[in-house]
Amino acid sequence: MANTALIATILKPSVNPNFWSQTAWAVLRAVVGIMMIHNGLDKLGNIESFSETYVEYIGLPFPLFFSYLAAFTELIGAPLLAFGLLTRLAALGLFGTMCVAMYHHILVAGFSIPYLELSAIYAACFLFFTINGAGLFSTDALIANWLDASALSVKAKQIMRLEQAYQSVSADKEKIGTAK
What we know:
The chain is mainly alpha-helical. The chain has one domain. 79% of the residues lie in helices and 0% in strands. The protein has helices spanning 2-11, 19-45, 47-58, 63-83, 87-109, 113-132, 139-147, 154-159, 166-179. The longest helix is centred in the first third of the chain and has 27 residues, at 19-45. It is flat. It starts with a helix and ends with a helix.
């Protein structure tokens, strides 16, 4: 019986985010955002070659336009994602570029894991942030709190350290009241 409870505790998903899950969320967001920046720089380094090799190959119209679009989506969207600013929009754009990259890899090599691996991992991360947003440790969350004081729950504000725990505040009030 105790083993079952232990296994259930280990397998239970984190439905109530806590400090450590939000920290991991922020680290993932920062890492994938920072790692994606060089892809945009590489594209701009030789945009014509990228356009011919990748975009024309898959048959998209206006290959040079779409090459610039992909490069600037990665150059602008990746830092936005890393900072957690306009996260859902940035992640959606980055998810789109990774879907096109996966399509290219499938056309070139079929369903070969070595070719698909990195773009699929990036796509999964960007899809996660498109659906879930940046998390509590983000510029988005700070702006949401600033725009609407009721946008975040008390627990979320406590995790973000924007609001002290109720018990702590109550204890301080009691100490002040008894000291007089």
